[in-house]
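We modelled the chain as a single entity of 391 amino acids. Its sequence is:
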Amino acid sequence: MRFRHPDGSTVHLAYCTNVHPAETLDGVRAQLRDHCEPVRRRLGRDRLGIGLWLARDAARTLINDPAELRALRSELDSRGLEVVTLNGFPYEGFGADEVKYRVYRPDWTEPDRLAHTTDLARLLATLLPDDATEGTISTLPLAWRTPYDGDPEAARTARFALTTLAQRLDALAEMTGKSIRIGLEPEPGCTVETTADAIAPLTDVGHDRIGICVDTCHLATSFEDPATALDALSAAGIRIVKSQLSAALHAEDPHLPEVRTALAAFAEPRFLHQTRTSTAAGLRGSDDLDEALAGRALPDSTPWRAHFHVPLHAPPAPPLTSTLPVLRDTLARLVGGPAPLTRHLEVETYTWQALPAELRPRTRTQLADGIAAELTLARDLLVDLGLKELP
């Protein structure tokens, strides 16, 4: 979906296909047929943006066979789908029964991460619509904090990898005329946990093609104030490459038994649900929601937020809620001003099948309806901010 900002520029809205995990190219094609095109039809649009997730094996197939890449681009066109952004965070196995810490490997100290991200950039340069010259890719925020933290050699290795990537993106732009940028995506528990944590490493890299992806669920989970966070990035000269529109799980009164019972329904074995609370002594956290509920890892006198991407249009029932207000405030700062701070927005609720059983979509039709409802909410927010939806 495309929108005209009051300054005349085009803002793209997509939804991320990591909600339909597939490891192979055949699986990606099935996603387009079974999920993405039905969502487009529900929205009554001739064209729908998707934030494509290409696992390692699917990406390598496309890199090794240009005919397959051309065929994928043709299929996107025929199904009324367009790609201006990729999710390069998960490398493989995102559809496994247990993902947890595995999603952070390989990290930016490992050669496979650089190789995979280079592949994604080359693919995106071909997949971009004919009238688009800019593409974006979100990626791992360097590494999970252990064993990276305290290891200066790891920091140097990651910085060298990102600098190498920037040079490759420069060369790609010269060859293709397509400008691809990469955004580190701060996430609780990682080396770059917050937007503030991103400033130093991105300043060290010092290249316009390497910036930040602001995920509004992660921002909220870490209790970051949107205005403060975005102003600091702007002051540091850090480009906001893209933003993922998502909402975290919020518990106002985690000391109450009924609240803890409600939270326990969201503690599940597939994904990591880092949980945080903001205290007078600073941010406190646990690596997973079940850890927070099981013991005394977190004080319960202040609200808890958990890294669980809840559907934008359907916050959980009381006594829980979502951090949709943080998304609204962030979006207003990103695109509500005289010029957009980013032009690529991506709804990223990948946890539909991790929701409590009674809230999960049971059919493809229900899932498509839910994704369409999320995109409708995002569209309405953009229109309220003065953007005009384009055909």
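As a brief sanity check on the tokenised model: The first helix runs from residue 25 to 43. The chain is about 40% helix and 20% strand.
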